[in-house]
Amino acid sequence: MNRTAEAIRQAGELHRRALALGAKAREAEAIRVMRKALAILDGVAEAASERTDWLRAWFRIQVTMAYSQAELGTVAVGIDGLQALRPEIARLPAGPVRSELNGFVDHNHATVLMRAGRDEEGIPLLDSAIEHKERCLAEGTDDPARITESLLASIANRGLAYVITGRLGPATRDLNRAIAIAIEHNLPIRLAITMISLGDLKRRTGDIPGALRCYEEAERICQEQGPDMLSRLRLDRAQALLAAGLADHAGQDLDLVIPHAREQRVYQDLAEAELFRAAAALLEDELTLAKRMATAARRRLLKRGNESWATIAALISLRVDAKRAIGSGRIPARLPALATQLAQQLRTLRLTDDAMLAGTLAARLELLRGDPARAEELLAQVPRPGQLTPIEQRMLLRLCQAELAVAQGNRRKAFAQARAGLNELSRARDRMGGLELVSGTAIHGQELGDLAVRLVLGGGDTAAEARRLFDWLERTRAQTYRYEASGSDDPRLSELIAETRHLGYTLRQARIEGRPTAKLQSRYTERRRAAMRLGWHAASRWGKPRPVAGVADVLAQLGSAGLVSFAVSGDSLLAVVLAGGRVRLVRLGSAAAASENAMRLHADLNAMAPDHLPEPLFDAISASARKHAAALDEQLMRPLTGLAGEWVIVPTGSLYAVPWGALDSLRSRPVVVAPSATAWLAASRGAAPSAGHTALVRGPGLAAAIGEIDKLAAHYDNSTLLAGTDATASRVLETMDGASLVHVAAHGEHEADNALFSRLELVDGALFAHELARLHQPPRQVVLAACELALNRIRPGDEALGFAGALLAGGVGTVVAAASRVGDLPAAAAMDDYHRALGSGASPAVALAEAVSVDPLRRPFVCLGS
C-alpha cells in the first residue's frame, strides 16, 4: 500500500472513531480525533488532492467537524462551516461520491437546525439528504454499509422533526422505517436513538406509558452498547415524567444529566437539562432553583444562537416570577406585558403551544391585577388547544377562562369550565399506566379544583351547596382509587424486584456483619430505580375507571352510618357531612391550626411508642399528646353535632396522620378511613363473603410479644401460619392470593421517593408494595400489625399512597394499620383484642374500635377502606 492510500485508510479509521465518540455526545474528543485525521490527509495533500478517495475522506471529516463545532460552539459556526463546503462539493463530477457528500452536508445542516429548535427548516434538508443517499445506493457505492446507516439516521431525524412539528402520520412512517432498517442491518445504537424518537412521538400524543416503554428499550441497548447516550435518553424521559406530574423523578434524572453534559461540553444538552430542571422545580414550588436553572439555560442558549429554546427558557423564568407575584398578591404591570411580548415571539418562532401558554398567562395576570376587560381581550387572541397541546397548558387555559367567568359574575360558566377541564384531565389520566403515573397527574388540575371549591363556598352553607361541594371533592381527590384492578404479572418487573430484594437482604446482612457496603448500596439503588422505571408502564393493572360517587348512592350505602369528608380552601377547613339522608356543610376554622395539631400529635405518638420509656418522660409526652388530641377533637368533631353509630372519614392532607380513635368523640366508635367516598363505596360494594382462608405471617427480628402470632390462631377455626424460613416473599404473596384475612407481623418502612417501594421485611428480604399487583384475587382484609404503613404519603389531589394505599388500590377491601409508630407490647395486646372480637363475628371497624379504646394513644391503629 502506497503512502497516500495508507494516509486515507488511517484518516478513515480516525473518522469512524470520531463518529462513535459523537454518537456518545463526546464531541470535544471527536474534534481532537478529526484534527489528527485531517493532519494525516494534509500530509499527502500535494500528491493526492485530486484523487476522489482523498477528497471524499477530507469532505467527510469536514462535514462531521462542522456539526461537532456547532455542538461545542454556536449554531452559526456549524452552519457556516457546512455552507462553505457546498461549492467545493459541487465541483466534483456527478456520481455516487457527490451524491453521498451532498447527503452528508444536508443531513448535518438539518441536524444543527433541529438542535436549535428550527425543525421546519430542517425537514426540506432531510428530504434532500434522503434523496441523495438513496441515489448513491442506487448508483452503486463502494461503502454501502456506511451509506445505509447514514440513510437510516436521516430518515429517523426527519421522523423526529415531524414529531416536533406535529405531523404524526409521516413521523410514524419514518420512525418505523428507520427501526426496520436498524434491525435488518444490526445497528443497535441507531435502533436505540430511533426508539428514543419513537418515545418522543408517544409522549407528544399523550401515551406516557408507551413513551416510557420506548425509553426503557433504548436504555437497555444503551447500557450494553453506548452508555454515554444515557444522558440524552434521561433528558427525553424527564419530559415524559413532567407530563405525568412526576416532577421529583424527572428532577432525579436531570440531576444526573447536568454534570455529565457539562463534563462532556455538550452545551445544547446541558441547556435543555437546565431548562427542564427549572420546569420540574416549578412544579414542586422550588422557585429559587427554578429561577436559577431557567436563567442559566437562557444565557447558555443565547450564547449558542438558539433563539427558540432561549425563548422557552425565558417563558419558564417568567412563570416563576408570575407564581411569586400571585402568591404575594402584588402583580406589577411589567409581568403581563412581558408575557404578551413572549407570546408574540413564540408565535413568530412557530412554537404554538408555548405561545398559547404565554398568552394565557398574560391574560391571567391582567385578570388578577383587576382588569377583566384586558384579560378577555388577551384571552380572545389565544388559539384553541391543538391535538398535541400538553395537559398542563390545557388546564391553565381552563383555569383562566373559569376565573374570567367568576370576575364577570357568571358562576355557571365558571363551573362549566372547571368541569370541562377536569374531564380533560380525567381522559389524560385514563391513558396512564402504573399507580405512580395515575396519581401524579393530579397536580395539573389542583388549581382548577381549588377554584371550584372556592366557588361553591361562595354560594353559602345550604344543603344544595353542600351537595355541590361533595360532588366537586369527589371529582378532584384520590382519583387513583377509581380504577378497577385488572391484574397482571410482568416477568421482567418480577425479575428486577426479586434481584432488588436479594440485594437488599445482602446489604442488610453486610451491615450487621460490619462488611463494606458501598458497592452493594450502589447496585441496590440502581436496580431499585430500574424496577421503578419499568413499573411506571409494565405494572399497568388498572382497568376501567369507576364513576364518581354521587350523594344519593353514598347515602343509600351508608344506611344508619355517617360520612365526613374534610376539605381545605385557603386556610379554611370544612366538612361535608352525609348522615340520616341529609347533607350539610360545616365550617371548622383554621386549616393550619388543625394541621399543626395533627402533626404534633403524630410526633408525640412516635415519641411515646417505645415500650420502656422512663415514667416522667412518658407522662410528659402523653400529656402533650392528649392536649393535641383534645384540640383536634374540639375543632374537627365537636361541631359535627348528632354523631352516632359508625362513621366513614375522608381526611385531607395532614389529617391522614390522625389516629381517629384517640379523639374523645370517636372513642369506642367504629370508624373507617377512606381516600374518598368513591373509594369507600367501591370497597363496600365489592365486599365478598369471608369464604377464603386466614393467613398469619411473622417476619424476622420481631420482639417476642408482637411475634407471638401463633396465639392469634386460637381465634380462628382454620388458619395458615408462615414464620421462620417459611415467611418468604413468594410464599406470603401466594398465601395472600384469595385469602379472607391476612395478618402480617413484620417490620416495614415507607420509601419517601417512591411509595410503591414501601416494604415489609421478610426472611428473604423485602416484600415491596409493587408486588401486590401480582395478586389475582386480593384478600378481603389485611392487618399490618408491627409497622407504621398507613396512608402516610399524600400527593397533590389527596392521592394517598404507600403500602396500605397499594393494597386498597389493588382491590383489598379493608386494611388495618398504625397511623404512627406503636410499641411492641401495646401492638400485641391490641391485635389479640382485635382478633378476638373479629373471631366472634364483629366487623373490622367495630373490632378495631373495641381494641383501640382500651388505650387509644398507645394503640394508634386505623381501619382503612371499608
CATH topology of the domain at 684-865: Rossmann fold
Architecture per CATH nomenclature, i.e. the level-2 architecture of the domain at 684-865:
3-Layer(aba) Sandwich
How would a textbook summarize the main sheet? 6 strands, mixed
Strand order of the largest sheet: 9-8-10-14-17-18
Cα distance spanning the termini? 84 Å
DSSP strand content? 5-15%
Tell me which oligomeric state these chains represent: single chain
Text of the CATH class of the domain at 684-865: Alpha Beta
- Overall geometry: globular
Rg from C-alpha positions?
Answer: 31 Å
Low-confidence stretches: none
What does this entry show, briefly?
By secondary structure, the protein is of the alpha/beta class. Helix 14 (267-283) runs parallel beside helix 16 (307-328) and helix 28 (591-607) runs antiparallel to helix 29 (615-637).
Description:
The chain is α/β, with parallel strands linked by helices and 866 residues long. Among the domains are: 1-71, Methane Monooxygenase Hydroxylase, Chain G, domain 1, CATH 1.20.58; 684-865, Rossmann fold, CATH 3.40.50. It is built from 35 helices and 18 strands. A six-stranded mixed sheet has the order 9-8-10-14-17-18, sandwiched between helices. It has a five-stranded mixed sheet with strand order 5-4-3-6-7. Strands 11-12-13 form a three-stranded antiparallel sheet. β4 and β5 (582-590) form a beta hairpin. α1 (3-23) packs antiparallel against α2, α5 packs antiparallel against α6 (96-115) and α21 packs antiparallel against α23. The chain is globular. The termini are far apart.
